Amino acid sequence: MDRSQTQLFDRGVEYLQRIQTCLPHPHTIDVMDNIRDRQAICSWIGGNIQSVNTLLHSHLNLCHECFAPNSRRSIDIFAIPFAPSIQLDGFCNLATTPTTIFVDIGRVAPVDWLALVAHEYAHAHLGYAGHDLAFAQTLHHLCLGLALPQPSATATPEILRCWPPYVPTIDRLAFWRGELTHD
Questions:
Q1: Strands 99-103 and 75-79
Q2: Does residue 96 sit in helix, strand or coil?
Q3: Are 42 and 16 spatial neighbours (Cβ–Cβ below 8 Å)?
Q4: N or C: the chain end with fewer CB closer than 10 Å?
Q5: CA 125 → CA 35, 87, 166, distances in Å?
């Protein structure tokens, strides 16, 4: 690795270590255990995570705009590559202040990132992880404001777990290795 590549790698490792301190389970991220891909992933994160998180914050702000200022919670958002054992594309850490949303954008096509952010935002806005009637109503409100497909009034918790709908990517690490773009 040349010097600039080493700096990008180190910056990526620093980011992942900083984020790990905010996670309920440190093994949510396992990039350092991925011998084959860790150099490419950490280097890509070191060079690109700021622009990705800026875009995610713009999506977060679009969600905020769907609610009156006095009803908006303090929420932050970060992109991270989840370990393969994590069976979620995003989740909220409701124990942090502000509430923190984590999304694995490598698992979702960039065109669908807003859908993933809206789903997690609904949880953060409500302050809990369930997919009940209040979640459905909040998500419906968000989807209407964001011009995303709205869940039906009879949507079950199982349907709401994956709403708004989006197509998962085939290779969840391709984005993180820098093989896909987010533009």
A1: parallel
A2: coil
A3: yes
A4: C
A5: 38, 22, 21
pLDDT, tens digit, for every residue of 56-106?
999 999 999 999 999 999 999 999 999 999 999 999 999 999 999 999 999
Distance of alpha carbon 95 from its chain centroid, rounded?
17
The beta strand positions in 40-119, using DSSP E, are: 75-79, 90-93, 99-103
- 155-167 in b/e form (b: 16+ CB < 10 A) is beeeebeebbebe
- Is the pTM higher than 0.90? yes
DSSP state of 105: G
| Maximal CA-CA distance, the chain | 57
The backbone region for 11, taken as left when phi is positive above 0, alpha when psi lies in -120 to 50, beta otherwise, is alpha
Q: What is the rounded CA–CA span in Å between residue 70 and residue 40? A: 43
Contacts of 123 (CB under 8 A, 6+ apart): 91, 92, 94, 129, 135
Tell me phi and psi for residue 30, to 5 degrees: -130, 30
Q: How confident is the model at residue 163 (pLDDT cuts 50, 70, 90)?
A: very high
Token pair of 27 as six digits = 């093994």
The tokens describing 49, both together, are 């995570």
Which residue type occupies 149? P
Q: How many CA atoms lie within 13 A of 58 on its CB side?
A: 6
